[in-house]
Amino acid sequence: MRGTITDLLAANAGHAREFGDRFDDVQEAQHPDAVTVCCSDSRVLQDHVWGNDRPGRLFTCGNIGNRVVQESDAGPVVSGDVLYPLAHTGTEVAVVVGHTGCGAVTATYEALTDGIDEPAGIEHSVSLLTDFLEPGVETLPDGLDRAAAVNHLVEYNVDRQVEFLLESEDVPDDVTAVGVVYDFQDVYTERRGEVHVVNVDGDRDVASLREENSEVADRIRRLWAY
């Protein structure tokens, strides 16, 4: 067996020793506080971002581009893995987690500007973002370099995913949808690994969000007010 697998199994043995008694209350059912929709990126430790070490606390979904959308015979719908906890476990908070330097957003930006040549599976995933991001690409501020353009579009993508949740008839009305960006590139501050709130239930205005959420005002900021 490859050494990587051996190392993973050794690490899991430590996990099992530490976590063995933490499943007592969730063996038969789960009622997570939030569903998080993260990007599939090795640099984004999806539960560890929140300091989570409690089984049952978070329902964690991951995919290319932190998408809440999937294609169906009926057209675009909220992805089943995101919708399940909102519909069946009493979860009332959905958090869309973008991140700086996102490869999926970069690929979508390139697809909309220069075109890409990727395997069919990757092209399909990117295609699920193109309709969301195309208006953003067309309205980017002038003078941005490629990295800055991508990070502006990271916010824009988070906004569009939150919007899709809010507009879906499948999502219960009492669900709060929050958009955040995880920064490990010193884009928002020099505190690498910090999560920054950019959108709450469709509100993108930093001033009003800070006023309404004063206890976390220092964690609310945006690159792009459009």
UniProtKB/TrEMBL annotation:
<dbReference type="Pfam" id="PF00484">
    <property type="entry name" value="Pro_CA"/>
</dbReference>
<feature type="binding site">
    <location>
        <position position="39"/>
    </location>
    <ligand>
        <name>Zn(2+)</name>
    </ligand>
</feature>
<comment type="similarity">
    <text>Belongs to the beta-class carbonic anhydrase family.</text>
</comment>
<feature type="binding site">
    <location>
        <position position="102"/>
    </location>
    <ligand>
        <name>Zn(2+)</name>
    </ligand>
</feature>
<dbReference type="InterPro" id="IPR001765">
    <property type="entry name" value="Carbonic_anhydrase"/>
</dbReference>
<dbReference type="GO" id="GO:0008270">
    <property type="term" value="F:zinc ion binding"/>
</dbReference>
<keyword id="KW-0862">Zinc</keyword>
<dbReference type="InterPro" id="IPR036874">
    <property type="entry name" value="Carbonic_anhydrase_sf"/>
</dbReference>
<keyword id="KW-0479">Metal-binding</keyword>
<keyword id="KW-0456">Lyase</keyword>
<protein>
    <recommendedName>
        <fullName>carbonic anhydrase</fullName>
        <ecNumber>4.2.1.1</ecNumber>
    </recommendedName>
</protein>
<feature type="binding site">
    <location>
        <position position="99"/>
    </location>
    <ligand>
        <name>Zn(2+)</name>
    </ligand>
</feature>
<dbReference type="GO" id="GO:0004089">
    <property type="term" value="F:carbonate dehydratase activity"/>
</dbReference>
